[in-house]
Write a structure and sequence with these properties.
Elements lengths: L1 H31 L18 H4 L7 H21 L4 H19 L9 H17 L3 H14 L19 H17 L11 H9 L4 H6 L2
Helix pairs in contact: 1-3, 3-5, 4-5, 4-7, 5-6, 5-7
């Protein structure tokens, strides 16, 4: 129990640190009565390049930040808990790929917010849990689908016809990034435990059938 508690705390800390920074940025804006939206992504612009790294830390308002806080905390904690060996690689990959997607293919406006990362995390956790033959991760996939499955509509530009300020490009970029990370790291991280009879069957199989077929 103590080990699991320590593991959970260790998984919780990185998301909390990142969220604290997001909230500090918004507090800084309010206290100084300024707007740091210019640090977001502006597609195909040199000024918008830093946003590939900074976009998830910047939010348009308190409601925007609060809407992203809970899903980011839940999904990123799940990532660090269940995929701790590859968690940072996956998070950084989603973070950068979603930002680059927006920089190359987004509308000519400033894109901000952590929604792209959230979409990436949900896509990774869902798909990765399906392609790995591990019951616990498959159950996690179902939970993610139940809690955040409706987010899929956010990748379509016509889903928010009256809210043109929503970056569906960021949502789509995050979704694609999560899929890429799930496929790329499919053989790393938690894997199904193999039993003794399966290992024996593998040992009995010819390790190099091609060699036998061409050199007899």
């Amino acid at each position: 129990m103590k080990i699991e508690r320590k593991r959970f705390v260790a998984a919780l800390l990185p998301p909390v640190y990142l969220l604290v920074f997001m909230w500090l940025v918004k507090i800084f804006e309010v206290l100084l009565k300024t707007d740091v939206g210019f640090l977001g992504v502006h597609p195909l612009s040199l000024d918008g390049l830093p946003g590939i790294f900074l976009m998830p830390f910047i939010h348009g308002g308190w409601s925007h930040l609060m809407a992203n806080t809970v899903p980011f905390l839940v999904l990123s904690t799940a990532l660090f808990y269940f995929y701790r060996e590859i968690s940072w690689k996956v998070l950084i990959g989603i973070w950068l790929l979603s930002g680059m997607w927006v920089w190359f293919g987004g509308r000519p406006s400033w894109h901000i917010g952590a929604s792209g990362v959230i979409y990436g995390l949900s896509a990774f956790l869902f798909l990765s849990g399906i392609i790995r033959d591990v019951k616990g991760l498959a159950a996690l996939s179902l939970i993610v689908a139940f809690l955040y499955g409706s987010m899929i509509w956010g990748v379509f530009p016509d889903f928010f016809p009256k809210e043109k300020n929503i970056s569906w490009e960021g949502h789509l970029g995050g979704l694609v990034s999560g899929v890429i990370m799930a496929l790329y790291y499919r053989t790393q991280g938690p894997q199904r435990r193999k039993y003794s009879w399966e290992l024996e069957d593998e040992e009995e199989e010819d390790p190099n059938p091609y060699w036998r077929s061409t050199h007899t």
